[in-house]
Amino acid sequence: MFGNLAEMAKLMSRAKDIQSNLKKFKEEMPDMEFSASSAGNLVRVTVSGDFRVKEITISEEALKDREALSEELVCAVNAALAAAKATAQEKMNEVTGGLGVDLPGMF
User: Would strands 33-37 and 53-58 be described as parallel, antiparallel, or unpaired?
Assistant: First the structure.
């Protein structure tokens, strides 16, 4: 019986650590930045860790073809968001020790 109590105390301590680390993670993630460029570097997009577009840089060359520019923008935005999401998931796994815990509203 006492062995189970020791395991329970250990689990509770780990849960408190995870909770503390999750709070820190949620505070740090919005300050992180992720950038990606389209093929040919015609468009570069930077997003924050809370998945907001912060900056879009468009080359003069890209402005010549409106249809291609649209495709380049979509590509660059999606790549930057994918990088942010992958990093968030990686950090989440680090914080939770791979327990598969998910933060509601993060992804």
Answer: unpaired
